Amino acid sequence: MLKVTTLTKAYGKKTVLDQISFSVQPGEIIGLVGENGAGKSTLLNILATLQKPTNGSIHLHDKLCQKEKQSIRKAIGYVPQDIAIWEEFTVEENMIFFEKLAWKKLEIKALRQLCLDMALDKWKEPVKTLSGGMKRKLNLAISLIHDPTLLLLDEPTVGIDLKSRKEIGAYLRELASAQGKMILYTSHDMDEIIHLCDRIICIGDDPFYEEILIDSGKEILSF
Ligand SMILES: Nc1ncnc2c1ncn2[C@@H]1O[C@H](COP(=O)(O)OP(=O)(O)OP(=O)(O)O)[C@@H](O)[C@H]1O
Q1: How confident is the model at residue 83 (pLDDT cuts 50, 70, 90)?
Q2: Distance between Cα 37 and ligand 1 center (Å)
Q3: Is residue 5 helix, strand or coil?
Q4: In the record, which residues are listed under signal peptide (predicted)?
Q5: What pLDDT score does 28 carry?
Q6: How many CA within 13 A on the CB side of residue 174?
Q7: Domain limits of the chain?
């Protein structure tokens, strides 16, 4: 379980995240929404242990993340907004490269299966020839190499076509329900958020998001 308690982040005098508390159970997909600059990426960065909170605590599987950073990182898969893969390498070479950096080792067959699971079959193609959607799928596959229990996805489907979005959504649902992964997911696509997520966290002062989600039937937490 992930437990976030009264988490606050300030940059100088500006408080971006103010006393945020929530928990995530295995198998849950949580949507994070809010206007540009509301603090969604900041929250994901803090959960990924890449930034320190100003106050508050985060526990993952009962371990305090601020204290046990190294072991906590093994349980986290993080896909930032910007695609971070080698353009000149093939899909296969990228997967092998990142497998070498991962703490858990996987056979090539298993690496390939990770890509196939999300309908990415261009194994021998250079990444520079892939579409944006395929690159996002590869980024996601890379984040899964070490079999994390917590997946943090910052706009994983931005700018990609409906079919690829549906494929990624279906795969995330499968990861949550079949493998019990906890997924935190940001998107500006409210239909996608409503369709995919079990619960939704609205960040920021603007009530706009809460208002348009109110009829979704989903549990909404606002901060
Ligand atoms: N290193 C930093 N120093 C100072 N301010 C920062 C820093 N990083 C982010 N901010 C500010 O914190 C606020 C939240 O930024 P963040 O990127 O988390 O928002 P976001 O909700 O992810 O936005 P978007 O939807 O545009 O991706 C913004 O006002 C941003 O300018």
Answers
A1: confident
A2: 5
A3: strand
A4: none
A5: 96
A6: 9
A7: 2-222
Q: Is the pLDDT of residue 186 over 90?
A: yes
Q: Which of 8, 11, 189, 223 to mutate for ligand 1's pocket (most ligand atoms within 8 Å of CB)?
A: 11
Residue 74 banded pLDDT, cuts 50, 70, 90: confident
Identify the residues whose C-beta falls under 6 Å from ligand 1. 11, 16, 34, 36-42
Looking at the domain 2-222, which fold is it?
Rossmann fold (3.40.50)
Phi, psi of 118 (to 5 degrees): -110, 30
Over 90: is that where the pLDDT of 198 sits? yes
Nearest atom in ligand 1 to the alpha carbon of residue 35 is 25
Q: How far is CA 194 from CA 158, 161, 169, 179, 217, in A?
A: 16, 18, 11, 21, 9
pTM: 0.89
Q: In what order do the strands lie in the sheet with 150-154?
A: 76-79, 150-154, 182-186, 29-33, 199-202, 219-222
Give the separation between CA 25 and CA 47, rounded to whole angstroms.
Answer: 15
**One-character DSSP codes across 41-69:** HHHHHHHTTSS--SEEEEEETTEETTT-H
What are 136-168's pLDDT values in tens digits? Answer: 889 999 999 999 999 999 988 887 788 888 888
